[in-house]
Structure formats: C-alpha cells, structure tokens
C-alpha cells in the first residue's frame, strides 16, 4: 500500500483489551499459489476459545513482553529476492487502530507486542510495504516469490544472526486471514512475514489480499 494503511484486517480480543490490526502494507497484485498451508497451520498450538467468545491471541493493546527479556530484530536479509532491510519496532496507531508499518517503503516493521527473536514459542511478525505511488517498490515487493526452502536471516539487537527456512506461502482475503495463528505467542517458534497482494481496487486505492510467509528456525 502507500504510506497510509489500507483498511482493518480484523479486531482481536487481547486480554481485557481489544486490538484492531490493519490490512498490512502495500502490495503486489497478481495472486500467488499457496504452498505449505498445512505446515504453517501445524506450527500453531490449538487454543480453546476464550470465555465469552473472541480471539485467544495473547497480546494486549498496550503491554509489552517483559522488559529486558526481548531481543528485537533490527535487520532482515532474504537472498532469494535480494532483500536487505532495516527493521523498526512498531505497534498500533492509537488514532486509527492500525498496524503501524514504517512510512518508508525501504524499511519494515516488527510487531513489538509479540515475541522477539529469543522466544522459544510463538510467531515473530514482520510486515512491510510492497510499493508506494510516491516511493516506488518497497522492501517486500517480491515477497510473493519466496518458496519453500528459501532462507531468511534476521539479525537481533544482540548482534546475533538467526536463520529461518521458508515452509509456507499463503494468500488470504484481508477479511479472512486467521490472525490468531499469525500473531500468537504460543506454538512452535516461527517467523511470519506479511505484505499485501491480490487484485488492486483502484476506487478504494487498496489491494484485496495479504501475502503471508511462514519460516521456521533453520
């Protein structure tokens, strides 16, 4: 998407607070073929529904993981699609309720209310722009080209490089993406990369879908 986010993905119940995560970033337009969907689903722990309904995603709209215990990713390298990008810690825009991806399309955002690179469980979420009418191609412009077996290297604030192997590439209508799976703090440790895709609605100035890449520690 462009500098501003495009529509809400969904509302997630988050402890005692509700969290709205936006349709994440700008996108590539042609649909991709899903691969590894069953593998991605198997990495998530089945979580019983919360009392009173709603999502079981264990995050809140204002609480971070324990101070000093989280290792934020600060740089991402994906050789298969020639990506090297800086990562900013981002949260939710309080005014819009949207996932606050960095405005520069050359940079990407780590969802700071979720796990860091040191976590032994859960999904480390990184989202980025594909393109912008003003800035051109973004860091995740070619994300939809990733396939199983490709590698992704995330460098943490501790200076350590951690390598992941892609196991799944999926495309969802933004209204149907299973947020409880991709933003969870439980299940197997994994890296989740998100951008947009599918057809572009010129009237709404937005792409219809999200591209989701799932990778596991190599």
For the largest sheet, list the strands in their spatial order: 3-4-5-6-11-12-10-9
The counted number of beta strands is 12
CATH topology: Sortase, Chain: A
Overall structural domain count: 1
Number of helices: 2
Active site: 129 (proton donor/acceptor), 196 (acyl-thioester intermediate)
GO molecular function: hydrolase activity
Signal peptide: 1-22
Keywords: Hydrolase, Signal
Descriptive account of the structure:
The chain is mostly beta strands. It has two helices and twelve strands; from the N terminus they run E-E-H-E-E-E-E-E-E-E-E-H-E-E. The strands form three sheets. It has an eight-stranded mixed β-barrel. It has a two-stranded antiparallel ribbon with strand order 1-2. It has a two-stranded antiparallel ribbon with strand order 7-8. The model is unreliable at 1-29 and 48-62 (pLDDT under 50).
Short summary:
With 218 residues, the chain is mostly beta strands. The protein has helices at 37-43, 179-182; strands at 8-14, 17-22, 73-78, 83-90, 108-111, 123-128, 131-132, 136-137, 151-156, 161-173, 190-201, 206-217.
Characteristic key phrases:
Sortase_F, 39% strand, hydrolase activity, 2 helices, 8-stranded mixed β-barrel, Sortase_dom-sf, mainly beta, 218 residues, signal, LPXTG-site transpeptidase (Sortase) family protein
């Amino acid at each position: 998407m462009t500098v501003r986010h495009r529509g809400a993905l969904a509302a997630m119940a988050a402890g005692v607070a509700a969290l709205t995560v936006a349709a994440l970033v700008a996108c590539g337009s042609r649909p991709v073929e899903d691969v590894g969907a069953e593998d991605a689903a198997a990495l998530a722990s089945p979580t019983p529904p919360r009392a009173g309904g709603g999502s079981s995603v264990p995050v809140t709209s204002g609480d971070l993981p324990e101070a000093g215990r989280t290792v934020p990713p600060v740089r991402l390298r994906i050789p298969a699609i020639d990506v090297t990008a800086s990562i900013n810690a981002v949260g939710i825009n309080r005014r819009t309720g949207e996932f606050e991806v960095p405005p520069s399309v050359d940079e990407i955002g780590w969802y700071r209310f979720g796990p860091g690179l040191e976590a032994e469980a859960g999904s480390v979420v990184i989202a980025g722009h594909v393109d912008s009418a003003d800035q051109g191609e973004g860091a995740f412009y070619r994300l939809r080209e990733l396939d199983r077996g490709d590698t992704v290297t995330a460098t943490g604030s501790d200076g350590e490089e951690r390598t992941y192997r892609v196991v799944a590439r999926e495309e969802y209508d933004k209204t149907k993406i299973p947020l409880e799976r991709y933003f969870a703090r439980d299940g197997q440790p994994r890296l989740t990369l998100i951008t947009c895709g599918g057809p572009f609605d010129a009237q709404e100035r937005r792409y219809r879908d999200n591209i989701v890449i799932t990778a596991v520690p190599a």
